[in-house]
């Protein structure tokens, strides 16, 4: 859990920096916090509940893995978390989203 607590602010910094104050491509936000970005895609903005979701994501992974380790399920649960995270990140990165993709916004402007 300590590793995830230390990783959280670093990942949050990378995610915010990739957003570029609304002018970036959100790549690292999508890769590091896919559940937050999927949720935000539904509403079109990154609101407080989604920010909280991002802040607790990695510590939650740590708690879940700690509990799994105590029960002897570490490998299986770690694999499940990894698969869920990678699938969500792939959806975020490869499915166009007009709210959180610089390419989509610029191409939409050129067609109007």
Please provide a brief summary of the model.
This protein has 112 residues and is an all-alpha fold. The protein has helices at residues 2-19, 27-32, 34-43, 48-70, 74-94, 102-110.
What is the rounded Rg?
16 Å
Q: Fraction of residues in helices?
A: over 70%
Order of helices and strands: HHHHHH
Number of strands: 0
Would you write up a description of this structure?
The chain contains six helices and no strands. It has 112 residues and is mainly alpha-helical. It has one domain (2-20, 27-110).
What structural keywords apply?
globular, 0% strand, disordered C terminus, mainly alpha, 112 residues
Write the layout of secondary structure elements.
Layout lengths: L1 H18 L7 H6 L1 H10 L4 H23 L3 H21 L7 H9 L2
Helix pairs in contact: 1-4, 3-4, 3-5, 4-5
